[in-house]
Design a protein that fits this description.
This protein is an alpha/beta fold. It is built from 13 helices and 14 strands. Helices cover 37% and strands 13% of the residues. A 7-stranded mixed beta sheet has the order 1-9-8-5-4-2-3, sandwiched between helices. The protein starts with 12 loop residues before the first helix and ends with a helix. It binds pyridoxal-5'-phosphate. The site of pyridoxal-5'-phosphate has 14 residues, from helix 3 and helix 4.
Length: 393
């Protein structure tokens, strides 16, 4: 019996040819492929600047730094995310706090954010940055979030790791409403470069800071120099801040350019499979993914994940049982996410169970079932049949 994973990459002959071409060129890194990928990504996402980095985690780290995360500053995010969304703020020694989710969208609740901001204003500890996470590819409700950002003066850093190709207000995620948006190209995500990420921003000065931070804090641009005089030759560069080696290689970027050309096809395949799941699972004791983030009925998920919630009802098996049965049947299900505040590292910072009840309730029933562009209808039928059986107590 073949195993059906919850997610997997799709690599074709064009992708392989693109990487092979770089291998026979003069540049494995810091060559022409990275700017080509950045420009193609920026054009596709209708954003002025795209800064390629070695992972979304690296991108979140330097974006937090560039947006002002520091000791004594607070950064808020969703508990229903991968730990990297919160860890990025901890790398900058900022304080992390969470905002509970909307049970329908599983995204950070903008209403809960509004309440928490009111309290924080009274006690004088407003956040410097809020990191919404477009869970499973469904956009957060960005219009009311932006209104809160403007009123309370925090920056919006989108963790758009799931959201390559998603639309909000008719436009690609990353083009509006956020100060910066971070995308991931890990193999389970929408497009892949093996490891890799991009920080997108309309703010060109911010993009310059990010370019420095991804490469040791160094600039080679004459117009950015602080001490260059006329005698400085072409060797001259300046390290102006403490940065990192967070560069993407040309091998990875060439794969990214090729994958980006396939994005429309990936998107259509994911949408079709998600529609099919919606129809085939409608009569089961499950809560299915929401289609709309709130105020915007034109939003479109990128369908990174198809996460169902097993409803606790008489005659229905519990989540752990359903999960174990599916794994035993060769269906590679997963759970996204264990609420971040329940991780031992965050408990040691003072967080405890019960603090973010909507995220905890969602987690108690959550199972991500297989969704990727090359999943066949026959495989999907098998997933549904196994799930139907597994749900019987
Ligand atoms: C995958 C993921 C990340 C980290 O991405 P990497 O590219 O693996 O560093 C961060 N946040 C979320 C929500 C993710 O799903």
């Amino acid at each position: 019996m073949d195993l059906i994973p919850y997610a997997t990459q799709s690599i074709n002959d064009d992708d392989r040819a693109a990487v092979r071409e770089v291998l026979t060129s003069d540049w494995l890194t810091q060559g022409p492929s990275v700017p080509r990928f950045e420009q193609a990504f920026a054009a596709r996402h209708q954003v002025a600047n795209a800064v390629a980095v070695s992972s979304a985690t690296a991108g979140l780290h330097i974006a937090c730094l560039a947006l002002g995360a520091a000791p004594g500053k607070a950064v808020w995010t969703s508990p229903n995310s991968f730990v990297a969304s919160a860890n990025a703020a901890r790398y900058c020694s900022a304080e992390v706090d969470f905002v509970d989710i909307d049970p329908a969208t599983r995204n950070l609740s903008v209403a809960a954010l509004g309440d928490k901001l009111k309290q924080a204003e009274r006690s004088g500890n407003l956040p410097a940055i809020v990191i919404p996470v477009h869970f499973a590819g469904l956009p957060c409700d960005l219009v009311p979030l932006r209104a809160l950002a403007d009123r309370y003066g925090f920056k919006v850093l989108e963790d758009a790791s799931h959201a390559v190709g998603a639309l909000y207000d008719g436009q690609p995620i990353g083009s509006r409403y956020a100060d910066a948006s971070v995308f991931s190209f890990h193999p389970v995500k929408i497009i892949t470069t093996g490891e890799g990420g991009i920080v997108a921003t309309q703010d060109t000065a911010l993009a310059q800071s990010l370019q420095q931070l991804r490469s040791h804090g160094i600039t080679r641009e004459r117009d950015q120099m602080q001490h260059a005089d006329a005698s400085a030759g072409a060797w001259y560069y300046e390290q102006q801040t403490l940065g990192f080696n967070y560069r993407l290689t040309d091998l990875q970027a060439a794969l990214g350019v090729s994958q980006l050309q396939r994005l429309d096809g990936f998107q259509a395949a994911r949408e079709r499979l998600a529609d099919r799941y919606d129809r085939m699972l409608a009569d089961l004791p499950l809560r299915l993914p929401a289609r709309e983030p709130g105020s915007d009925s034109t939003a479109r998920s990128s369908w990174h994940l198809y996460a169902v919630e097993v409803l606790a009802r008489p005659g229905v098996a519990d989540r752990a049982t359903v999960f174990a049965r599916l794994r035993a049947a060769g269906i590679g299900v997963n759970v996204h996410y264990i609420p971040i505040h329940l991780q031992p590292y965050y408990r040691a910072l003072g967080f405890r169970p019960g603090q973010f009840p909507a995220a905890e309730a969602y987690y108690a029933g959550a199972i991500s079932i297989p969704l990727y562009p090359t999943l066949t209808d026959a495989q999907q039928d098998r997933v549904v049949a196994e799930l139907r059986q597994a749900l019987v107590a």
